[in-house]
């Protein structure tokens, strides 16, 4: 079974084509600068003359980007399949499913309508996600599209965790509440961590997805009960360019002092804040590590503010779950930055939790990095959102195929 996974960002598109018969990635790639000057596709097929093919051409929207990707997938030189009909299903990452989607589902007209309605909660992503879905419908008629929502895993949160202390009518009228994001990643790594714990009947896992965007989830018995991101991916931890939690009054105060509009301040809080804002150096932790080592005090401060925010959330989720069995690190920083991991975990000495310093030195491997005596296991698990989307797609497409076959058999009798 061949499954294409598509992840449309606001101006980018990532894809992977899997052959699930042998768990092989046939091709993957990235389209950048969609709708902006300099659009380009980096296509990486397996087993071809070159590892990477780069194509530069204007791409007005995600539809054009998908069309280009499809062309390259069947191209005689850099393609990996003879015809698009070999693709059995397409899994799409969809950013915001509001309260309507608790799990992945086949895309229908009704689903598209609801995704469109959720667009005011994910204005940069949902329209792009939808355009990706519609381009696939047009280019591969009859192939099932599956929507995998970034918010779905967090839908098990109880009202006490998702309700904002605002006038209740905003929740009733506009669904203003905490949703949480990176759900596919938190689901994937928490499931893997529970397997590594030996699939106990009860488990309390804290998953730290620390990347350019960062979030934390409290996962009790496999279900999310709280998370750091909110109505949008702006709340919670300090991030690359996003502020995370701040006093909302800062917005009004800065707007007033700098004579800026609400939109301008929101742009600063989304794109010029976080560790970039504090350091003035970069949003990338590799640059910050280097600058801090070279004596840049603001880079060092940014790293410390970031770790402090992670420590605070882990501590609060330990309280929420009345304990913890495993703390999991994933995503770019979580998988690679041993200094940050060490700086965070040293705060949990009081729980008899200790890192194995040698194991902690590794990068990007699935591994327990706490000592054997450590009461709480600390685990590094590389996330694989594409594989999780692919697995959901296989499951849903297979189920649908069986249902359709049963229907055909019943109709023919
Ligand atoms: P992600 O959003 O998961 O792709 O993570 C991207 C971020 O991970 C980058 O912006 C870096 O800050 C961070 N990162 C990636 N590799 C490393 C590394 N080797 N050491 C420290 N941070 C890293």
Question: Helix and strand layout, with pairings?
Answer:
Elements: E1 2-8, E2 13-19, E3 24-32, E4 40-45, E5 53-56, H1 62-73, E6 87-94, E7 105-106, H2 109-117, H3 126-139, E8 144-149, H4 159-162, H5 168-174, H6 183-196, E9 204-210, E10 214-220, E11 223-227, H7 249-258, H8 262-271, H9 274-279, H10 285-293, H11 297-321, E12 326-330, H12 331-336, H13 338-345, H14 357-360, E13 367-368, E14 377-380, H15 385-412
Helix pairs in contact: 1-3, 7-8, 10-11, 11-13
This protein binds adenosine monophosphate.
Residues 211-212, 240, 284-286, 331-333, 336-337, 363 line the site of adenosine monophosphate (AMP).
Describe the protein in words.
The mean pLDDT is 95. The chain has 413 residues and is an alpha/beta fold. The protein is globular, with a radius of gyration of 22 Å. It has 15 helices and 14 strands. An 8-stranded mixed β-sheet has the order 5-4-3-2-1-6-8-7, sandwiched between helices. The longest helix has 28 residues. Bound molecules: adenosine monophosphate. Adenosine monophosphate binds next to helix 10 and helix 12.
Shape: globular
- Give the strand order of the largest sheet, numbering strands 1, 2, ... along the chain: 5-4-3-2-1-6-8-7
Low-confidence stretches: none
- How far apart lie the N and C ends? 29 Å
- Biggest sheet record: 8 strands, mixed
* Quaternary form: single chain
Query: Would you tell me the overall average pLDDT?
Result: 95
């Amino acid at each position: 079974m061949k499954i294409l996974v598509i992840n449309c960002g606001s101006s980018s598109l990532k894809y992977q084509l899997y052959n699930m018969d042998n768990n092989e990635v046939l091709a993957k790639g990235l389209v950048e600068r969609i709708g902006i000057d300099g659009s380009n596709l980096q296509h990486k097929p397996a087993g071809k003359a070159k590892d990477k093919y780069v194509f530069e051409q204007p791409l007005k929207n995600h539809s054009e980007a998908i069309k280009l990707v499809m062309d390259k997938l069947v191209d005689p030189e850099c393609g990996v399949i003879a015809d698009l009909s070999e693709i059995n299903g397409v899994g799409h990452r969809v950013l915001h499913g509001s309260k309507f989607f608790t799990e992945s589902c086949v895309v229908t007209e009704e689903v598209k309508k609801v995704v469109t309605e959720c667009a005011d909660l994910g204005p940069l992503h949902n329209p792009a996600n939808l355009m990706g879905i519609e381009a696939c419908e047009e280019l591969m008629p009859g192939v099932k599209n599956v929507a995998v929502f970034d918010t779905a895993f967090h839908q098990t949160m109880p009202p006490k965790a998702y309700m904002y202390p605002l006038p209740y009518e905003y929740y009733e009228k506009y669904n203003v509440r905490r949703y949480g994001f990176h759900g596919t990643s938190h689901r994937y790594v928490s499931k893997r961590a529970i397997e590594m714990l030996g699939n106990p009947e009860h488990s309390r896992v804290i998953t730290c997805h620390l990347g350019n965007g960062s979030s934390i989830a409290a996962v009790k018995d496999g279900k999310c009960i709280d998370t750091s991101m909110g109505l949008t991916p702006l709340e919670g931890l300090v991030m690359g360019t996003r502020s995370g939690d701040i006093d909302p009054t800062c917005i009004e105060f800065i707007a007033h002092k700098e004579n800026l509009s609400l939109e301008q301040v929101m742009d600063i809080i989304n794109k010029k804040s976080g560790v970039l804002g504090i350091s003035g150096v970069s949003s990338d932790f590799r640059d910050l590590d280097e600058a801090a080592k070279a004596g840049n005090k603001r880079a060092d401060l940014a790293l410390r503010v970031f770790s402090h925010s992670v420590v605070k959330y882990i501590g609060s989720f330990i309280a929420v779950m009345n304990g913890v069995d495993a703390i999991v690190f994933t995503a770019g920083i979580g998988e690679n930055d041993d200094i940050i991991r060490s700086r965070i975990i040293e705060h949990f000495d009081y729980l008899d939790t200790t890192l194995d310093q040698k194991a902690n030195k590794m990068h990007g491997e699935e591994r327990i990095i706490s000592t054997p005596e450590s009461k709480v296991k600390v685990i590094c698990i590389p996330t694989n959102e594409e594989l999780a989307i692919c697995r959901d797609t296989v499951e849903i497409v297979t189920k649908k195929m069986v249902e359709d076959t049963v229907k055909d058999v019943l109709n023919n009798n």
